[in-house]
Amino acid sequence: MIPAELKNQIIRYCHRMDDKGWVANHDGNISVRLSGGSIAATPTARAKFDLKEEDLIELDQNGKKIAGNAAPFSEIAIHLRIFRTRPDANAVVHAHPPYTTAVGCANQEMVTWAVPEAIVSLGPGVPLAGLALPNSEEFWRELDPLIPHYDAIMVAGNGVFTWGKNVEQAFLRLELVEHVAKICFFSQTLGGPKLLEPRHVAVLLKKRSDAGLALPPDPARTSWFTLT
Fold it and tell me: Which of 60, 78, 173, 188 has the lowest CB atom count within 10 Å?
C-alpha cells in the first residue's frame, strides 16, 4: 500500500514538473521504492498536470501491477534497473527539461566543472546514454555501466533520469541538472563556460565525499575524475 503522505508528495512533484515546463503531453514519470519492496509509480499515458493521488499504481519488483487502475509506463524497466543496481536509491524521476534534453539531442555530455555547487551535488559530470532505442540490448550496454557512478544520466532524445534517497532529492537533482544546462547554454554567448582547475574540483569532490554523496569513479570517463 502506498502511504498517503507519499502519494501527496509524488503528485506535488508531478505538478511542479509541469509548472516548470519540463514535461509535455504524457512525458515524465516518477517511481518510489516502498518499505516492503514494492514500487509506487505514476501511470502511463497521463499528463502530469492533472494527476491525482488515486491515479497512482503499485508494482512488484518486476514491474507487474499489483494495485491501481492504470497501466505502468513503458520506461519502468529503466527505473527498476536503477533500483536493482543502486540500493541507496529509493526514488527515480524522469522528465524532458528543455536545456538538458537539448544537450542530449546534440549527443553531448555535460561536465559540471563550471558550477561549484553542482560538483558537490552531482559529481564531476552528467553522462549520456547515446543514440539507441530504449529497452534494446544496445541501450542497456550503454546505460547499465553508468548507473553505479552517477545520480543523473541523460538519454539522447529522451531527457534525463535522476534518483536519490527520496522523491525530493531525486527532484532536486533533476532541477540542478537543468539549471547547469541552462547556465552553460547562456554562457555560450559570452565565450563559453570557464571550467575550474582540477585542484579546485578536487576540493569540491572532497566536500561531496564528506557529505556522504561520493560514488565510485567511472573508468570510462577518467578525465572527469583524474584531478592531477
Answer: 188
